[in-house]
From TrEMBL:
Amino acids binding acetyl-CoA: V124, T125, V126, R132, R133, G134, L135, L136, R137, S160, E161
Lineage: Bacteria, Bacillati, Actinomycetota, Actinomycetes, Micrococcales
Span of domain N-acetyltransferase: 25-194
Glycosyltransferase found in the keyword field: no
Protein name: GNAT family N-acetyltransferase
Record-linked HAMAP family: Eis
UniProt keyword Transferase, yes or no: yes
Domain of life assignment: Bacteria
Family statement drawn from the similarity comment of this UniProt entry: Belongs to the acetyltransferase Eis family.
Annotated NCBIfam families: PRK01346.1-6
InterPro entries found in the cross-reference section: Acetyltransf_17, Acetyltransferase_Eis, Acyl_CoA_acyltransferase, Eis_dom, GNAT_dom, NAcTrfase_Eis, SCP2_sterol-bd_dom_sf
Quaternary structure and partners: Homohexamer; trimer of dimers.
Pfam families (alphabetical): Acetyltransf_17 (PF17668), Acetyltransf_9 (PF13527), SCP2_2 (PF13530)
Gene3D superfamilies for the chain: 3.40.630.30, SCP2 sterol-binding domain (3.30.1050.10)
Length: 453
């Protein structure tokens, strides 16, 4: 669809104040276009609105064009909310949306190498002078209903604030943490990873990064496939602030014993004026434990460097266990990273493989009504059959909100923790049901998502 085409649905006006959303705003959906397209102006204005919504410096035209080109590769659907009446002098142009919302489709690893389609939500902004009028609620409600109608089992996002998305049924499924790793002579691994590390030309990452990521994506539960910007960043072609070249980027590639690349690290030096001497890890993707530890062994032994910092380290990090001195890793408290929102309980649960057989009746509440109900989850030989039992009243062994079912879905959050937090309730006849669910949902390695979107 293009801007201004048949998708110009007025936002429905039920439940809004008199003279509210329907009169004041118009909603348009369109596919991102590159600068070569005659529809580019709508995409460019939309990108500028996102930039404004996140309080960033206004973008140069070249940055807008590059962002649009990357969005085009991702095939993003952009939704904009526009004022229906022209503003007074000094207002932004009528073509600049007051609210933005983008989606694209990728896959999510739900454990044991299984990939399911996921509806990714991103770039959600409402302009400062249009906030708290219900625009996000309207955009999210419509979007989730459309994704469900399309048959996508799960939606996902990464959040700017942890207080916004639970009300829409999203739950935290993976965590990450910022680590500072002291390097130099004290940095010694207790194990010897197989394979070797090669310093590589950053430009090679345009091809290598997606290939290596595809392998890692299949290996790690909770992983979400990546958007175009990642390979450009690893190749030094997308500096975060400017969107331009990043001449500071360096790259190391891990080669397995057979010579196949199975991991990479992209990093940059903070400069000699910065003490202690710091290497900033931009990205570390590893398809195997040997690649992960091999790359850390390389980073930990860089001469003249005192420490490596990484914002996106796994919450359960093998490096800590592999070091002779685990205190070399100083970590901040884990932050929420991937948020999931199951849209279709049966499709989502049947897509998974299970670590233990068993049978449970689940009662799922859902304020948006998309996935509410009672369900029988029966697992035989690791394969689930899910039967919908109707409305969410009546007996259940586990009762939980759709946000909590989404949290435990890829095995990165334990139902036992949510039971202790009072989020999950178990039936009187089955007090151990949260533990049974935890055993069923266990995955082959700690869940982690390395893709911010
Ligand atoms: C996936 C992503 O892109 S994450 C990025 C989110 N965007 C940002 O952080 C940019 C800055 N913030 C904004 O642009 C806006 O404030 C938004 C998008 C967060 C909210 O948009 P609004 O149109 O103001 O939200 P809306 O009025 O529809 O509120 C919906 C509900 O969320 C609540 N809410 C909205 N913003 C927040 C917040 N920052 N913290 C907690 N609750 C919030 C509202 O109180 C309301 O609650 P209720 O309906 O349950 O009573």
């Amino acid at each position: 669809m293009t801007a201004g085409a048949a998708s110009e649905d007025a936002v429905p006006g039920d439940g809004v104040p008199a003279g509210g959303l329907a009169d004041r705003y118009e909603l348009r959906r369109f596919r991102a276009s590159g600068s070569e397209s005659q529809d580019f102006a709508a995409t460019a204005e939309w990108i500028r609105a996102v930039n404004y919504g996140f309080y960033e410096k206004a973008l140069a035209d070249s940055h807008v064009a590059k962002t649009a080109a990357a969005y085009r590769v991702d095939d993003r659907e952009l939704t904009g909310v526009y004022e229906t009446r022209p503003g007074p002098p000094g207002a932004f142009p009528a073509g600049r949306p007051v609210a933005t919302f983008a989606t694209f489709r990728k896959t999510l690893n739900v454990g044991y190498g299984r990939l399911v389609p996921a509806h990714l939500v991103t770039a959600v902004t409402v302009r400062t002078d249009h906030r708290r009028r219900g625009l996000l609620r309207r955009l999210m409600g419509e979007d989730l209903a459309r994704a469900k109608a399309d048959g996508v089992p799960v939606a996902a996002l990464t959040a700017s604030e942890a207080s916004i998305y639970r009300r829409f049924g999203y739950g935290v499924a993976t965590h990450e943490r910022r680590v500072t790793v002291s390097t130099g002579p004290r940095f010694r691994l207790a194990v010897r990873p197989r394979g070797r590390v090669m310093a590589a030309e950053p430009g090679a990452m345009l091809e290598l990064a997606p290939t290596i990521f595809a392998r890692a994506h299949r290996a790690v539960p909770g992983s979400v496939d990546r958007q175009e910007q990642y390979r450009l960043r690893a190749a030094g072609q997308w500096e975060r602030g400017s969107g331009g070249e990043d001449a500071a980027v360096r790259v190391a590639v891990h080669l397995a014993e057979d010579g196949a690349p199975d991991g990479y690290a992209a990093y940059r030096f903070r400069g000699w004026s910065h003490e202690p001497a710091t290497m900033e890890l931009l990205d570390l993707v590893a398809a195997t434990p040997d690649a992960y530890l091999g790359l850390w062994g390389y980073l930990g032994s860089l001469d003249l460097i005192d420490r490596v910092v990484w914002d996106e380290a796994p919450a359960d990090d093998p490096l800590v266990w592999a070091l002779e001195d685990s205190r070399l890793v100083r970590a901040e408290t884990a932050r929420d990273m991937l948020w999931l929102r199951i849209l279709d309980v049966r499709a989502a649960l049947e897509a998974r493989r299970y670590a233990h057989d068993g049978e449970l009746i689940l009662r799922v509440d859902d304020a948006l009504g998309l996935a509410a109900g009672r369900y029988r989850l029966a697992v035989v030989d690791g394969t689930a059959t899910v039967e919908a039992l109707g409305a969410p009243d009546g007996e259940a062994q586990v009762s939980l909100d759709i946000a909590d079912l989404s949290s435990v879905y890829v095995g990165g959050v334990s139902p036992v923790s949510l039971l202790q937090a009072g989020r999950i309730r178990t039936g009187e006849s089955a007090p151990e049901a949260a533990l049974v669910l935890a055993q069923m949902l266990a995955v082959e390695r700690p869940a982690h998502c390395l893709t911010h979107f």
